[in-house]
Amino acid sequence: MRQTVKGGYHPNPRALMSHQTLWCTSIVTVAICLLLLSTPSPATAQSTPQRIDLDQAIQLALAHNHALKAARTAVQQSEAEETTAAIRPNPVLTYDDLFIPLSSTAGQSYGNLLDTVTEFDLGFSWTFERGGKRKARMRTARDQTAVTRSQVADNERTLSFNVAQQFVAVLQAKSTLQFAQQALESYQKTVNISEDRLKAGDMSRADYLKIKLQLLQFQTDVASAQVALVQALASLRAQLGYDAVPANYDVAGDLAYTPLRLNKEDLQARALGLRPDLVAAKQSVTAADSQYSLQRANAKRPVTTTLTYSHVSAVNSLGFAASAEIPLFDRNQGEIARTHYAITQAQENQTVAEETVMTDVANSYEAYRTADQVTQLYESGYLKNAEDSRDISEFAYRHGAASLLDLLDAERSYRATRLAYLQALGAYMLSVEQLKETVGTRNL
Question: Are residues 319 and 383 in the same domain?
Fold first, then answer.
């Protein structure tokens, strides 16, 4: 319907309003559709695996590993021993009632007999510890707690390395699987080309079967790599704790060569101050000295004092008594001698721990240097040469300028070189983690 007015043609206002309403409704509908498409469904969100990097994996293991949780309770037990060491002896309350009459006698009432015949005593005893035993016990307990904390810290250091080692194994398994899949895809193209040549009469069936049989090796490599990856992820999850990550978790990261500038002497110096096992050995010397002081304090015999109130024959009285053991034979000389030798034992163990730290760092450093040199050899040109040789042989074979044996030999050489390179990368990253573990820090 049209309305003609002066000055030109204008649409119907109701029709114009209807078009505007439809236009707005269309925009809202499109916006809702886009929002629904951009929002992942619950099934999609659940199917997305959780990805963790190495630092996250170590933190998860430190928080969820049950063996470490069990070890940490040793610190709490040792702190409870500190409470026990600070406890003072309990006072002793004694009471006795003697000569209680069962019946009255002639001329005396029962109440009179209770007052004149019955005897009762009320005593209060307190033991005074001599030689500073309580302070010595508290010091010994605190020193032992410090040793326990360092031992737990050493467990954390070992767990961190085990997690890093297994994490590198997962990365190597993923890289191996990726390479195996790429090699299979590339070789499948060669098989397809050979099949076309066979159909065209440019290749004998015997040569084609040789190429086709070689495909089995690539397929086997993929299957083996898949199994290795599943097993590596399962082993890593066991280190983290099964409740730390879901079953379909994955790791983030790649095998990579990151050169480091390290000095063996500097690393050894840092390890002597950072290694928790060495710190525990040093603290054990202090704890042994505390034990020696405690046993010397135990040689001082305590004194027990008693205050007694007595009622005898209608007479009330107070009494005071003191008792102490005379150290004529037992002067705790055996424990004093034993703890004295224990100090020497702890000192020798500290020396052994220091030598172990120096040796561990030296061995780890040499392993790192060797892995670094091997990795650099592959990246300096050998890996590229193997890849170029494979590509040249494949190109020449496709154009009839190379034999089948040349192609298969180049393919085997490239695959072996590539796998050896991945192993070298894994060994390099593992040597870095080993070095971190021997030094006692994640930051080199």
Answer: yes
199-218 mean pLDDT = 85
Averaged over 312-317, what is the pLDDT? 83
Q: Is the pLDDT reported for residue 379 higher than 80?
A: yes
Cβ count near 343 (within 10 Å): 18
**Whose CA is closest to 166, among 268, 280, 52, 84?**
52
Co-location of 321 and 394 in the same domain: yes
Q: Are 211 and 187 in contact (CB under 8 A)?
A: no
Inside any domain, residue 43:
no
Query: Please, what is the end-to-end C-alpha distance for the chain in angstroms?
Result: 84
Report the alpha-carbon distance of residue 282 to residue 277 in Å, rounded: 9
Residue 311 lies in a domain: yes
* pLDDT at 320 exceeding the cut of 60: yes
Residue 424 placed within a domain: yes
The secondary structure of 256-308 as a DSSP string is: --------HHHHHHHHHHH-HHHHHHHHHHHHHHHHHHHHHHHTS--EEEEEE
Confidence (pTM): 0.78
User: Looking at the predicted structure, is the pLDDT value of residue 12 above 70?
Assistant: no
Distance CA 114, CA 393 (A): 122
Q: How many domains does the chain have?
A: 2
Instruction: Give the DSSP H or E segment for 105.
Output: none
Domain that holds residue 10: 3-35
- pLDDT the model gives residue 270: 95
Cβ atoms of 164 and 253 within 8 Å: the answer is: no
Q: What is the average pLDDT across 173-190?
A: 89
Q: What is the DSSP letter of 244?
A: T
Report the distance separating Cα 389 and Cα 251, nearest Å.
Answer: 33
Residue 70: which H helix or E strand, with range?
helix 66-85
**Rounded distance, CA 278 to CA 284, Å?**
10
pLDDT at 281: 97
My answer on whether 305 and 166 are in the same domain is yes
